[in-house]
Structure formats: structure tokens, C-alpha cells
Design brief:
- The protein has 357 residues and is α+β, with helices and mostly antiparallel strands.
- The protein is built from twelve helices and nine strands.
- The protein is elongated.
- It comes from Schaalia dentiphila ATCC 17982.
- Keywords: Membrane, Transmembrane, Transmembrane helix.
- This is Efflux ABC transporter, permease protein.
Length: 357
């Protein structure tokens, strides 16, 4: 038996691809549709979970509030932010509201907040030297970040703005108010906190912010009860409708690879009869399969990237890595199917293959 060099095998595979013998075009289309289609469906499912999780956080569904009038230690509440995945800040009301000169007949409720609260609300700044207004109030008053807001008695610098839409079900009272960032010193009325992903341990730990041992009047509330009490992102990923995509894609890929090779069984048996080693025919089939598997991988990757471009930026890279892993797994099993089918073809089957043709 003769042994071909790697260069000769590559040259032969190249000629088979150009001549159409390897059926690169049709196999690329089939692999993209069957294998890539399954993976793209999973990419769409992953994006949906990610978007739902982001919406849950944007609407403050992940934020909880520990209420205890004048019994929250501001420094302890603020210190919760040191825990990975946790953001927290304290809030207390001020008796005298804010009276903008543009609203002589009314005043804005004023709340003192620690820097963590301002960050939790997604405000444009956490400058402790000014006030932070809801975006709609700032627009109604005709003021912007960095401007001086005339008051009935003096003026205040607008340090930033924050979004607050009570129409989505979040607790009322902060769409028409003003926040004054202050150091986390003294006692506060509430401790706002978010643990993402949600942790019951943080719910228990937040009670350490209470001053004194009597916490019977303290209660934990959801900032936006209409969004549910928690969002189990990990559970949603595990239970997504297409969790089996990598298994299906790998199975279909292996079947397609084996079928594509078996389709050329007469050609392979003839090559063995002509004196080629089984290792040579297997490597040759593998080289040719790389052409259409690689083409399908590139096409499917483009489609998946387009789908995942709609995912939140914070999750996008993780989702891309997950889908890429599924694609690599499916591509590997496709090539394994080619190898398995090629090694099962024997020279002695040549007559049977020829007769069956």
C-alpha cells in the first residue's frame, strides 16, 4: 500500500472541493440549516432570557427596601456594597422640602441619600455637593446637570438626574422629589439594596443595618412588586426551551458528517482497492469535511452574532462564549462522524457498493 504525503492529500482535497466531488456547497447549506439552525435558535432563546433579566433590573424589580423609621445605620447599609454583586444605599426623608422658584405654590419632597442610593438609581452623577432630580422634573423646571436651580431661599446646584417611571409599578413618591446626596453618617429610614444574582443571605445580612435589637417594626419590601419577588436568571437559563440545543446540534452534525462520507463509500472503497491506506482516505475525507464544516461555522456564527447583538452589553460576551462553545462542540462531532464513517468502509465491500449503485 502507498502512503500519500500531507501535501498530496491537501492537493487532492483541494481538487475535490473545486470540482464539486466533495459537495462542499450543498453540505455547507445543509450544515448551516440543520446544525447552525439549532444553535441559532438557542442563541435567540439565550438573548430572550438576558433581555428579560435586564428589563427586571431596569424596572428595579431586583431592588428591595428595608424600612425602619430612623433605625437604619447609614454606614452599615452603605458598606453592603462591598459584597460582590451587591449595591446598597440609605435613604431618609427631610421635613422641609425643596421650593424651586419656578414652583411658588408647591415644594418638592426632599430625601437625603447616601452615594450608593444614587448609583442604584442609575443617576448621571453622585456629586455630593448638589441635588439630584427626576428626569421629568428637571425637564419641567428647564434645568440641566451642572446648572443652578433658583429656590425660594437661595439656590442649589443640580448634580444630576435619575429616571423614575411609576407607570411600571415601582413604588410611588420619587417621580416628583429631590435627592440630596450626603455622607453615610447617622441613622436613616430605609436601606435600598440589590443583590444580583439574588441571594437570600443578603436578605438576612441587611438586617444587620438596624440600630438596636428591636426589629419587629422593620419590614423588607420589593421596590417594584409588579415584577415579582425575584428573578432566577440561572434557573431560566437551565430551563430555557432550547437547553438541549448543543446535544441536538452535535447529534445532527455527527449524523450529517457520517452520511456525507457514506455517500462516497464507493469512491473510498475504490481508493482502498487502488492501494491507499485507510488512514490516507480518512485524512482526505477529513480535509474535505473541514471545508464545508468551516463554511457552515462561519455562516452560523454570523447569524448568531446578529441575534446576540440585541442582548444587553453586560451579558453579550458571556452569551457569545456559550454559543461559540456549542458551535465548536457540534463542529467537532461532525468531523468525528466523518472519521467514524470513513473507518468503517472496507476494500472488500467494493463489489457490494458497486452492485448496489
Amino acid at each position: 500500500m502507498s502512503t500519500l504525503s500531507w501535501r498530496a492529500l491537501l492537493s487532492e482535497a483541494w481538487r475535490d472541493c473545486l470540482s464539486g466531488t466533495a459537495r462542499v456547497g450543498i453540505l455547507t447549506i445543509l450544515a448551516t440549516a440543520l446544525v447552525g439552525g439549532v444553535i441559532c435558535a438557542d442563541a435567540f432563546s439565550l438573548r430572550s432570557v438576558s433581555v428579560e433579566a435586564a428589563s427586571f433590573r431596569v424596572h428595579l424589580g431586583s431592588v428591595r427596601v428595608l424600612q425602619a423609621q430612623g433605625s437604619i445605620d447609614g454606614a452599615t447599609c452603605e458598606a453592603l456594597s462591598r459584597i460582590p454583586g451587591v449595591r446598597a444605599g440609605a435613604v431618609r426623608s427631610v421635613e422641609s422640602g425643596l421650593s424651586p422658584l419656578a414652583l411658588p405654590a408647591s415644594s418638592l419632597p426632599l430625601y437625603e441619600v447616601t452615594p450608593g442610593t444614587v448609583s442604584l438609581l442609575g443617576a448621571t452623577t453622585a456629586d455630593p455637593t448638589g441635588i439630584v432630580l427626576p428626569e421629568q422634573v428637571a425637564e419641567d423646571l428647564g434645568t440641566t446637570q451642572g446648572a443652578l436651580l433658583p429656590l425660594a431661599h437661595g439656590q442649589a446646584e443640580v448634580a444630576g438626574t435619575y429616571p423614575w417611571d411609576e407607570n411600571d409599578g415601582r413604588r410611588p413618591g420619587y417621580a416628583y422629589a429631590a435627592l440630596a446626596p450626603v455622607p453615610a453618617m447617622g441613622t436613616f429610614d430605609e436601606c435600598w439594596y440589590e443583590s444580583w444574582p439574588h441571594s437570600d443571605d443578603v436578605d438576612a445580612l441587611v438586617r444587620s443595618t438596624l440600630v438596636g435589637s428591636d426589629d419587629q417594626n422593620a419590614q423588607v419590601l420589593a421596590m417594584n412588586p409588579t415584577r415579582g419577588t425575584a428573578f432566577d436568571a440561572a434557573g431560566q437559563l437551565r430551563q430555557r426551551p432550547t437547553w438541549w440545543a448543543w446535544i441536538a446540534a452535535s447529534t445532527i452534525g455527527a449524523t450529517l458528517g457520517a452520511a456525507a462520507t457514506w455517500w462516497r463509500r464507493l469512491e473510498i472503497a475504490s481508493a482502498l482497492h487502488a492501494g491507499l491506506r485507510r488512514s490516507d482516505t480518512t485524512v482526505l475525507q477529513l480535509f474535505e469535511a473541514v471545508a464545508w464544516v468551516g463554511g457552515a461555522f462561519v455562516l452560523s456564527s454570523g447569524i448568531c452574532l446578529t441575534i446576540l447583538s440585541g442582548a444587553p452589553p453586560s451579558d453579550r460576551s458571556d452569551l457569545i462564549r456559550l454559543v461559540a462553545t456549542e458551535g465548536i462542540c457540534a463542529a467537532s462531532w461532525t468531523l468525528i462522524g466523518v472519521v467514524i464513517a470513513s473507518t468503517t468502509i472496507r476494500e472488500r465491500q467494493l463489489f457490494a457498493f458497486f452492485k448496489g449503485r
